[in-house]
Amino acid sequence: MTREATLIAGDGIGPEITEATLLVLDALGATFDWDEQYGGMSAVEKAGTPLPNATLDSIRRTKLALKGPLTTPVGGGYRSVNVALRQEFELYANDRPTKTIVPGGRYDKVDLVIIRENTEGLYVGLDHTFKVGDDPKAVAQAMSVMTREGCRRIVRFAFEYAKQHGRKKVTIVHKANILKATSGLFLETARMIAPEYAGAIAADDKIVDNAAMQLVIDPAQFDVIVTTNLFGDILSDEASGLVGGLGLAPGANIGTKAAIFEAVHGSAPDIAGRGIANPSAQMLAAAMMLDHLGELDAAARLRRAIETVIVKDNVRTRDLGGTAATAEFARTVARRV
Ligand code: NAD
Known about the structure:
single chain, 337 residues, alpha/beta, ten-stranded mixed β-sheet, two-stranded antiparallel sheet, 11 helices, 12 strands, 39% helix, binds nicotinamide-adenine-dinucleotide
């Protein structure tokens, strides 16, 4: 069945990894009717704005998007289009799995999922500077906003996710010792919900700094982690580093109005345009999109093909110690599916 979906190739390495992903989806026989739209820097160049109305209209209609990374200027300039999309479509749950694919790395048995709250906390955009005397930026202030309902729905999402995916434990990660109101509300709400799953899903909690250290020392102790926006962003990049880096880390942004699938990584300006980026994360994001659509066999075939190419065929991009170009890796995966 052909399914309409929005396609945003994105900035930097985005077009390269998206082309590679479309090639393997084609080989898989997964047919999408893509509505190609723009966002980020490439949208500024084409339409004069980082988030054109046409892009929003398209996602409103299709409720489904595969998105490449979008560049956000650092320290100034326009606000993150990624954050804007998550807020516009209430994509409150960010599902970021980390699993060992490459053998012989630091850890052989990492298999954890970070469920990150995706719309609240420090990402609400209440970030200001204040003038004092002659200095226009003498004071900077950011506000974190958490709601009871926001905490409730992400924690419930994490426990339901654990139940549906045969997971055994949810670890609540917070900073409630210092951020007593915001992180405190998150922890308090999570502790109210956890007992509803007693006997089926175990629950514990950890302060984020300890959780970050424990992830490096003994990642196998983690199963599902549920946490707030900023902590989830940082911990998921950290987790990807345990299994070979950002080139292998996919993510899904799930909400009530739409779902957007993307790699965890950014536009990687340092390697953009050279044809050497690892497209696996974007391909694995496409596999999550197939799962979401109930195409479980196709998703499993795609994951198996990526694994076979990396492990058995030993065709790897440079970030994994190989020499394969993005296109060569994609052609090998396409043959394997
Ligand atoms: P980044 O994730 O783009 O890159 C970090 C490092 O990882 C770089 O050395 C890069 O070369 C490497 N890397 C990332 N993806 C790779 C891949 N597929 N294959 C091989 N190597 C890869 O992070 P950054 O440099 O901090 O950010 C660059 C831009 O991306 C910023 O504008 C940032 O705001 C944006 N960003 C966007 C998203 C998104 O669209 N969801 C996520 C994170 C960052």
